[in-house]
Amino acid sequence: MATLDIASVFNDDRFMKIEPAVPSYFERLVAIWESSVRATHHFLQDSDIAALRPLLLNAYLPNLTL
Length: 66
Hints:
Layout: H1 6-10, H2 26-40, H3 46-60
């Protein structure tokens, strides 16, 4: 049975890379959030999402350690 070398997995660019979120990522993170919310939170109106978007971008993400 082959064994998995965890160190080689985390150093392989074909796999997900985890790194701290920085302000240059915030627009993309909010876009991912919005896409996810629109796909799963059907009870929210467009106006709800529009109200939350700037809060995420300008207030929440800058004060959160990711």
